[in-house]
Amino acid sequence: MRNRSPERSPADGPLSVRDRHAAIHHQIRQRICLLSYPPGTRLSETSLASEFGTSRTPVRRVLARLEDEGLVQSVHGVGTIVTDADIGALEQVYHLRVELTGLMGRLDPVVPDVAFVERFERLVTRGREIIDTGTPHEFTRFDMDVFQTLLQLTANIPLRAVLERLYYQTKRIWLQAAIEAHLDLKEEFRIFHHELEALLQALRSNDIEAAAHIQRAHISMSFKRLQQNS
Amino acid sequence: MRNRSPERSPADGPLSVRDRHAAIHHQIRQRICLLSYPPGTRLSETSLASEFGTSRTPVRRVLARLEDEGLVQSVHGVGTIVTDADIGALEQVYHLRVELTGLMGRLDPVVPDVAFVERFERLVTRGREIIDTGTPHEFTRFDMDVFQTLLQLTANIPLRAVLERLYYQTKRIWLQAAIEAHLDLKEEFRIFHHELEALLQALRSNDIEAAAHIQRAHISMSFKRLQQNS
DNA sequence: GTGTGACCAGTTGTACACATCTTTGCATGC
DNA sequence: GCATGCAAAGATGTGTACAACTGGTCACAC
């Protein structure tokens, strides 16, 4: 059997259908979660289509998926609106995320190899630089990179999928609420960086369960701080 | 504020867009999970469209959602194929389901009221009748009803959504594998019915955590029996 | 000034024609 | 008899025109 995509180079011109879909999905999700499209924004299928150089049809499929993921909601005759969330709904998702993150250490944990630890060390270094100069936008983007990396500590595919779904549901709401509550974002950076150093220690000891519990505690405390200030 | 769907009676003619979508989605998902469309079946958008009295467009949206849920996979030029799963992938989903089911007792548990207990009692009675006369089809349908009912024991909406997703991913594969492994389905009925009676006891005592642990143990043992016979 | 009703611009939902791709079966050369 | 190529059928993906619907604006009666 040959490759499913014949004569495909890594940096080739015509992407497959799935790749095009994934690219548009990733782009729009990033904009929503980085608050380029804050909650309440009305997205236009037509303008998105012209921006991505395609027709409305593929854009509509992406928006339908984002609707299933809870990030937007389409209303006939009105538009496709970026969803908002009250603190109550956010709390439910956070509680679930806390428990599922704790599960990462027990469900098919992956012992990190040298390359993984080095990659994580680079992340810690990059985080140290961001503490002083970082904008909320850069901080969130950094947080996403860390999350995607740590996701590889479990080989349980469905668990990964669920965690990713819940992460993108909460991150943007947290960011917006943190800004509105005048949370000290620089202080949040610092706390996050401490967590990363603790995680690095755990990873060097190949202790996935400890790493999972550190993340779990971080998520829980992060939400508690938000609740206290709002 | 008035109803989102003005002048809507329970049995009214013109359904809203969301309802039509939900109806088609439910129908096709039922057929997949009841093995009317066994794994490998090629679904045709055109014939589904004519059956539901619509065009391909709404059907395509439903199939896209089912693809995101992992139940089908669309391949350009070939068709939309009902997915299969090997025992390894199934094991990962089962492990996750076991843990999440255990969480139901701790994340926003709902104390069952009298109406709920009565509804469950009727389910137990219905189950007793099915033990002798039931076909695999009826058994699975009954299992779905029980699952949907027990889902209401937690008020955590995201947890419900995740559990439902994982349930429909595994149920049909379990059923197919159970038939192929020549598992004694009548014996499985009986064990399931014992579980229901134990659950009824727990519900009467308002002990949601016990109910969650009973379900958890049931799911775990059910999969173990399957593994031993395959 | 105010309430009311009709129109209009803009949006999502649907239907359909066409493009692109895969499979399959058959004809043809050897 | 067999391999090979080609064409045709049928599937999903895409583009586009139109239907259905909403929110706002503006003219007009009172």
From TrEMBL, chains A, B:
InterPro entries: GntR_C (IPR011711), Tscrpt_reg_HTH_GntR (IPR000524). The lineage of its organism: Bacteria, Pseudomonadati, Pseudomonadota, Alphaproteobacteria, Rhodobacterales. It holds the Pfam family GntR. GO terms for molecular function: DNA binding; DNA-binding transcription factor activity. SMART domains: FCD, HTH_GNTR. The keyword Transcription regulation applies. Residues 18-85 form the HTH gntR-type domain. Keywords: DNA-binding, Transcription, Transcription regulation. It comes from Roseobacter insulae. This is GntR family transcriptional regulator. The keyword DNA-binding applies.
